Amino acid sequence: MEPRTELINPAPVVHRRKTLARGAALRTSRTHAEADEEARDGFDAEEIFEHIKDINDPEHPYSLEQLDVVSQAHVTVDDNTDRIKVAFTPTVPHCSMATLIGLSIRVKLLRVLPRRFKVDITVSPGSHSSEVAVNKQLNDKERVAAALENPNLLEKVDLCLNGQTVM
C-alpha cells in the first residue's frame, strides 16, 4: 500500500498559541507509583488543556491548539468524582484522523494523570460525520487497549505527542 499523499484538509486555519495564564509549573509525565502518591492533588481544566494543547496534528506541522481542535473551554474536570472530559473538534467533518487525534489525547493524559481519573474523550457534538462511531472507539477500554498494543499505531501516537506529523 502506497503512502497517502493528499491531505484531508490541505489548508487548515491556524490560530495563535495561548500561554499558560497563571504561570504555574506544568506537571510532567510520571510513573504510576508517583501519580498514586500525588493522587489527591487537585487538577483543573487549565492544567489538562496545558497537557494536550501541544499534541501535533497527524497531518500538519501545527499543534491541536493552533488548529483549534482542542480548547480549554471543551475540557471539564470534576476533581471530586475523578472525571475528566475532553471534547475535540476535527478541522473537517470527514476527518479520517479523528480516532488518532483522540487516541493521542487519551495516551497523553494516561501518561501524566493519576490512575484515579476516568477520562472521556469525544468529538464535539455535530463536528464529525461519524461522531458516534469515533466516540465509541475512543471510550471503549478494550478497543483502546487493542489499539495501544499495535506497534504501528502506537508509533503514530508517539509521533503526534513528540511534535511530528504522521503523514
- What are the low-pLDDT stretches, counting only 5+ consecutive residues below 50? 20-25
- Tell me the number of strands: 3
What is the architecture at the second tier of CATH? 2-Layer Sandwich
Per CATH, the class reads: Alpha Beta
Structural class: alpha+beta
**How many domain regions?**
1
Number of helices: 6
Distance between the termini: 14 Å
Mean pLDDT: 86
Specify Rg, calculated over alpha carbons: 16 Å
Strand content of the residues, in percent? Answer: 5-15%
Indicate the topology.
Blueprint: H1 32-37, H2 45-52, E1 75-78, E2 83-88, H3 98-112, E3 118-123, H4 131-139, H5 141-149, H6 151-161
Helix pairs in contact: 3-4, 3-6
Put the structure in a nutshell.
This protein is an alpha+beta fold and 167 residues long.
Can you offer a commentary on this structure?
This protein is of the alpha+beta class and 167 residues long. The chain has a single domain, classed as 2-Layer Sandwich (GMP Synthetase, Chain A, domain 3). 35% of the residues lie in helices and 10% in strands. Strands 1-2-3 form a 3-stranded mixed sheet. The longest helix is centred in the middle third of the chain and has 15 residues. The two termini are 14 Å apart. About 4% of the residues have low confidence.
